[in-house]
Amino acid sequence: MGMISRGFSGRRTPTDVKLPPGQYLTTDFPVLSAGPTPHVPLEKWEFVIDDGKNVLQRWDWKSFRNLRSETVTVDLHCVTRWSKLGTSWEGVPLDTLLADIKTDASYTLVRSYGDYTTNVPLKDLLNKQAWIAFRYDGQDLAPEHGGPARLLVPHLYLWKSAKWVRGMTLMHEDKPGFWEGLGYHIYGDPWREQRYSGDR
Amino acid sequence: MWRVGTVVALHDETATARTITLEVPDWPGHVAGQHVDVRLTAPDGYSAVRSYSLASAPNSERRVQITVERLLNGEVSPYLTQEVIVGDRLELRGPIGGWFVWRSQQTGPVQLVAGGSGIVPLMAMIRSRTSAGSTVPFRLLYSVREPGAVFYRDELRTLSAEHRSVVVTYAYTRTVPKDWPRPPGRIDAALITDTTWPADLGPACYICGPTPFVETVANLLTASGNERDKIRTERFGPTGERK
Q1: Which residues of chain A have pLDDT under 70?
Q2: Cβ contacts of A34 on chain B, cutoff 8 Å
Q3: In angstroms, rounded to a whole number, what is the distance separating the alpha carbons of residues A83 and A78?
Q4: A contact set with B (CB within 8 A)
Q5: Which of A68, A46, A42, A73 lies closest to A143, judged by CA?
Q6: Which of A22, A134, A161, B156 is the 20 to 30 A CA-CA neighbour of A146?
Q7: pLDDT of residue A84
Q8: Are the CB atoms for A91 and A70 separated by under 8 Å?
Q9: Do B40 and A82 touch (CB under 8 A)?
Q10: Model ipTM over 0.90
Q11: pLDDT in tens, A117-176
């Protein structure tokens, strides 16, 4: 427990809602990103999975959108401490995108338009845990929220759900992405409060 | 690791914003643009944490400043702007962040664009420039609701008068001072062209403010020829409280 702050009582989240440690509820959708929002025309969009040497799979927007998608309702937890519950998304599960790829890699580096990267263990992208999402709350995903398409991996802090995704590289060894190289946690589990490097 | 800072000074910047100076004996030093997490704890153990940009330049005195804008329905900002008195102790963690930073070794021209309380980390950069004796030319375009909402007004006036290489331009969105040449309004393409560095000088651009503001300014700067990788942004939503 922290040092008591004289005269502080706080405005609390209702106790029937369970949030990860150190988070508070919000109903709006704040945005955090490091640079200008890329605007990617759909006719130029592609999603490529490679192993660092060879392209293993490639989709353009049309072939991507022809994949079977699903609608999911998930909770979001941002490292800047807000949580938003019950958000609704439509996307293609990573299980589908990775289905035909044989690999013994354990890690991935997800890449975005605008040169953002983030690392996620491959097992965290499988078994209905992650999607490439293209709709939020029934609407096409706005550029500032990552449109045309973003990764959605809601069991990790939201910076792992890379906006403006363009592909991923399968890797045998873990390698920090953009924020992970700037002091944020390599894995980022909100329930274990893995915010910054050095957090267990 | 949580550090304990003692409040040694309080200064009201505006009717709703206050600068808090903390003495932190084990402060490891920081870089302009970084932020800290501040943790408040109630007697029953309940705690709330928010991030605040550092306003002070790196210094050797183990003192840091944050400037906090009071948010309607905020949880931490009302306490920091209204409850805290000199002598109180606050827990903080940091410094945090290695992207939205200006280091005094940087040599290229700098373009700062602030929206409202987004001025805070940019002020740390201006102060860092001065304290390091840097001669890098800075320009600041500061969008603010009305003259009374300007943070650090006197210091900015002095800096722009004495150090001509920090050029400050205000853009008032609702109310302008008497005889002000530009009617109230948001930053637009003409103002970007007239007051920011020409893109061919390749300025390092730092934009901080509310999300729609940052979005607009980043688009205007790229439209006027600035390279995307020269533009760094820090945004906060209504509940982000990262100021």
Answers
A1: 13-16, 28-33
A2: 99-100, 232-233
A3: 6
A4: 1-12, 22, 24, 26, 28-38, 80-82, 114-115, 144, 178-179, 182-183, 196, 198
A5: A42
A6: A22
A7: 92
A8: yes
A9: no
A10: no
A11: 999 999 999 999 999 999 999 999 999 889 999 999 999 999 999 999 999 999 999 999
Query: CA-CA distance, B218 to B212, in Å (whole number)?
Result: 10
Calculate mean pLDDT across residues B136-150: 97
Instruction: Name the residue of chain A whose CA is nearest to B94's CA.
Output: A196
Q: What are phi and psi of B155, to 5 degrees?
A: -65, -40
B17-76 pLDDT, tens per residue? Answer: 999 999 999 999 999 999 999 999 999 999 999 999 999 999 878 999 999 999 888 889
Single-letter amino acid code for the residue at A165: V
The CA dihedral of B45, B25, B80, B82, to the nearest 10 degrees, is 110
Angle at which helices B153-162 and B119-131 cross, to 10°: 40
Name every chain A residue with its beta carbon within 8 A of the beta carbon of B242.
Answer: 80
Distance between first and last Cα of chain B: 21
Would the CB atoms of A182 and B99 count as touching at under 8 Å?
yes
B interface test, pick of A1, A3, A4, A5 with most B CB neighbours within 10 Å: A5
C-alpha span between A45 and A7 (Å, rounded): 54
Are B41 and A4 a contacting pair at CB < 8 A? yes
Closest chain B residue by Cα to residue A32: B235
Residue-wise over A18-55: b if at least 16 C-beta within 10 A, else e?
ebeebbbebeebbbbbbbbbbebeeeebebebbeeeee
pTM, to two decimals: 0.91
Q: Which two tokens stand for residue B69?
A: 């804008």
Determine the distance in angstroms separating the CA of B2 from the nearest CA of chain A, rounded to an integer: 9
The yes-or-no verdict on residue B105 having pLDDT over 80 is: yes
Q: What is the DSSP string of B81-124?
A: III--TT-EEEEEEEE-SSS-B-TT--S-EEEEEEGGGHHHHHH
Cβ separation B42–A9 shorter than 8 A: yes
For testing contact with chain A, the best of B22, B30, B49 (most A CBs within 10 A):
B49
Res B239 pLDDT > 50: no
Whether residue B91 has pLDDT greater than 80: yes
**Can you tell me the mean pLDDT for B218-240?**
85
**DSSP track, A90-125:** EEEEHHHHHTT------EEEEEETTS-EEEEEGGGG
